[in-house]
Design goal:
By secondary structure, this protein is α/β, with parallel strands linked by helices. The protein has helices spanning 14-19, 22-30, 36-47, 51-54, 57-63, 68-77, 83-96, 99-102, 112-132, 136-148, 159-171, 189-193, 212-222, 259-294; strands at residues 152-156, 178-181, 200-205, 226-232, 243-247. The chain folds into two domains: 14-102, Winged helix-like DNA-binding domain superfamily/Winged helix DNA-binding domain (Arc Repressor Mutant, subunit A, Orthogonal Bundle), CATH 1.10.10; 120-294, 3-Layer(aba) Sandwich (Rossmann fold). Strand 3 (200-205), helix 13 and strand 4 form a beta-alpha-beta unit. Helix 5 crosses helix 6 (68-77). The protein starts with 13 loop residues before the first helix and ends with a helix.
Amino acid sequence: MTKKTKHPQAPHDANDAATHTALEKAVRAQYASLPVSERRIADFILEFPGEVAAYTATELAELSNGSKAAVTRLIKRLGFSNYDEARRAARDAQTWGSPLYLMQKSHQPKDFAGRVQFHIDQDVQNITTTLQSLSPDSFRLIVDTICTADRVVCVGWRNSYFLAAYLHWQIVQVRKDVSLLPTAGMTLAEDIAMLGKDDLLICVGMRRRVPQVEKVIAAANKQQAKILYVTDRTAGALSSATWTIPCSVRGSEPFDRYGAVLSLFHLLSVAVVEKMGETGRKHLQSIEHLHDVIDEME
């Protein structure tokens, strides 16, 4: 867990998307004119472009049943000065979080039991890495702030939205004035303008972040609100955030894994419930009573 330390940001906007899928686009643009010897390698790159980041030219030739000379010719034809430049392009795409560039040719056990255990092990590793990196003092301060802030605002976009929503629905059960943004059809400026020094913004920004993440955090900082930024390990901290918690979300598959984020939010929520004590229990009781009155659940 980090506090107010600035690190370089991973790319996240539309221009970055074009830049960091340059390898695949270059292959597609040249594909029709490629000789057979190079097309075999191009087929492999189109199917698993991220493998370029992991292997040498010789290894890529072997994996694609081609030759090192054909790899060298292809890389030059694609507009890269050398193979290392193409590898850097693939690595940039992986860092950016493109699922296509995170796919690997073969990495999982073939039997079902082995695949299940492989799946479990990755989530356990991510949860362990994330939770063991927490600062006890910062964690207590975050819990105290969630409990005592005048308002708590949870915000997220794309995959981060459902994570922000999960945390929102835990906290809202034990305290008042908890909201989730963005809401359908609404802009954010009105809500951010209402934030003040006694409020807390919790921003979830997993990779392939939208540009609004940094802008909303900066705007909330100017409103003097406290800010918890929950992100992945490619992002680093933002100087405008009060606290930053980096979560481990990578596995060996093309899609990121959010088990560690949910586990962190569960840990936070349980601590908030305990801290809220009798006030939280009374709020939860009133909600349960209203469920019965409104007949919302079976």
